[in-house]
């Protein structure tokens, strides 16, 4: 994943000549493992599980979840 982010950032840098924009793109395409673990822990603390958090706080019902899976995973 990090390799793809690096390649995309390099392409942005090449096409735009904007190193700052390229770095922003790289940051947006990556996530720190510590950050995501902390986010999941906070969701579990708030609602008991990540799935419950997504349903209760975000409103991600089964229909919406299936739609997102079709769009991004299949």
Give the number of helices.
Answer: 5
Largest sheet at a glance? none
Report low-confidence residues grouped into runs of 5 or more. none
Shape: elongated
Radius of gyration: 17 Å
Q: Report helical residue fraction.
A: over 70%
> Topology as H/E string?
HHHHH
Which class best fits the helix and strand makeup?
mainly alpha
Mean of residue pLDDT values: 92
Number of strands: 0
Distance between the termini: 18 Å
Percent of residues in beta strands: under 5%
Task: Write the SSE topology.
Blueprint: H1 2-16, H2 19-28, H3 33-47, H4 50-58, H5 62-72
Please explain how this structure is put together.
One of its GO terms (molecular function) is phosphoprotein phosphatase activity. Pfam families: Y_phosphatase3 (PF13350). InterPro entries: Prot-tyrosine_phosphatase-like, Tyr/Ser_Pase_IphP-type. The chain is mainly α and about 70 residues long. It has a domain at about 35-70. The protein has 5 helices and no strands. It has helices at about 1-15, 20-30, 35-45, 50-60, 60-70. Helix 1 (about 1-15) runs antiparallel to helix 2 and helix 3 (about 35-45) packs across helix 4 (about 50-60). The longest helix has 15 residues, at about 1-15. The model has no long low-confidence stretch (mean pLDDT about 90).
